[in-house]
Design brief:
32% helix; 140 residues; three-stranded antiparallel beta sheet; alpha+beta; single chain
């Protein structure tokens, strides 16, 4: 049997910061947009003059799937929505809250709340790793 050998791994690489956690909507959501578009086509083809502008809805929905994401690293959280991007340092975040919506909300020290797109209770371990423990892992 061969033994594992330490092949020149320096101590600086062992303490390297963790990779940023990129949490986004699954690309499979484009499939749902496609099915919605097929259903919408039956309405559009019934009266194209009036209902053709409705085809903007699937385009916007697909853009949301592409654009919405939360990127967490050791410095903070970057939130990207359809029209805006915002960076929140970890020091400005008091905690995370899960309400009626599926996505988490970051409660800021100034009392405001920021929706974290695609961050669910199941993605918290990824945030724990990326934030170097600032976000507690609820699973252990």
């Amino acid at each position: 049997m061969q033994r594992c050998q330490n092949r020149g791994v320096s101590s600086s690489s062992a303490s390297a910061p963790p990779a940023p956690a990129v949490i986004r909507i699954s690309p499979i959501a484009h499939l749902a947009v496609g099915f919605f578009t097929l259903g919408l086509l039956s309405v559009v083809l019934a009266n194209p003059r009036w209902f053709t502008p409705l085809l903007v809805i699937p385009v916007i929905a697909s853009a949301l799937v592409i654009r919405y994401r939360t990127v967490a690293d050791q410095d903070g959280v970057a939130v990207r929505t359809l029209l805006r991007s915002r960076h929140l340092p970890w020091d400005d975040i008091e905690g995370l809250r899960f309400g009626r919506g599926a996505w988490a909300r970051a409660t800021c020290r100034d009392g405001s709340e920021v929706v974290l797109p695609a961050v669910t209770f199941g993605t918290l371990p990824r945030l724990t790793t990326a934030s170097e423990g600032r976000v507690p892992n609820p699973y252990g």
